[in-house]
Amino acid sequence: MEGCSVGYAMEIINGKWKLLIIWNIGMEKTIRFNDLQRKVEGISSLMLSKNLKELESDGLVIRRQYNEIPPRVEYELTDVGLKLGSVLQKLGEWGEEVHRQKNSPTTALDASEIWPDSFPCVQSDR
Predict the structure, then answer these.
(1) How far apart are CA 39 and CA 34, in angstroms?
(2) pLDDT tens for each residue of 81-108
(3) Domain boundaries defined on the chain
(4) Residue 55's pLDDT is what?
(5) Helix-, strand-, coil-residue percentages of the chain, each rounded to 5
(6) H or E element in which residue 61 lies
(7) Using an 8 Å Cβ cutoff, are 48 and 37 in contact?
(8) Cα(44)–Cα(78) distance, rounded to whole angstroms?
(9) d(Cα 74, Cα 83) in Å, to the nearest integer?
(10) For residue 121, what are the CA distances in angstroms to 31, 64, 65?
(11) Average pLDDT, the chain
């Protein structure tokens, strides 16, 4: 998928945790590190920190540090990160549909009626 925008997007949100992190930040609007770690079950502090740094570097997350005692750090989505909300909503709808289909017999879908003929492509700088 080199040079394809879908491949580029997948490079940015790859990994086990990033979509869960984005989803939880989006649901809370602004969230502190420890609260986010509690919501993303099973993630270590180190892995959460690493993923947040990558998401910040890719322009999806804003990190705000307040000079208070005790220190306070909050995370929120950038405008670019917020745009993933509709994508994650569609992914959730797809997940519900797949779950229903696993539990009931269905007829096969015609891929030509559903799958896009092409995806927009851009050059990746990654």
Answers:
(1) 9
(2) 999 999 999 988 888 888 888 887 666 6
(3) 1-83
(4) 97
(5) 50, 15, 35
(6) strand 61-66
(7) yes
(8) 24
(9) 20
(10) 34, 33, 36
(11) 86
* pLDDT of 68 higher than 60: yes
The DSSP code for 69 is: S
Distance CA 7, CA 29 (A): 27
To the question of pTM greater than 0.85 for the whole model, the response is: no
- Per DSSP, the three-state class of 52 is helix
How confident is the model at residue 85, as a pLDDT? 92
Kindly tell me the burial class for residue 124, based on how many C-beta atoms sit within 10 Å of its own C-beta (0-12, 13-18, 19 or more). Answer: middle
Q: Decide: 51 and 15 in contact? Cβ < 8 Å.
A: yes
Helix, strand, or coil (residue 89): helix
**pLDDT tens figures, 35-44:** 999 999 999 9
Asked if the 1-83 domain carries CATH number 3.40.50.1760, the reply is no
Residue 71: pLDDT band (50, 70, 90) is confident
Lookup: tokens for 75: 């995370």
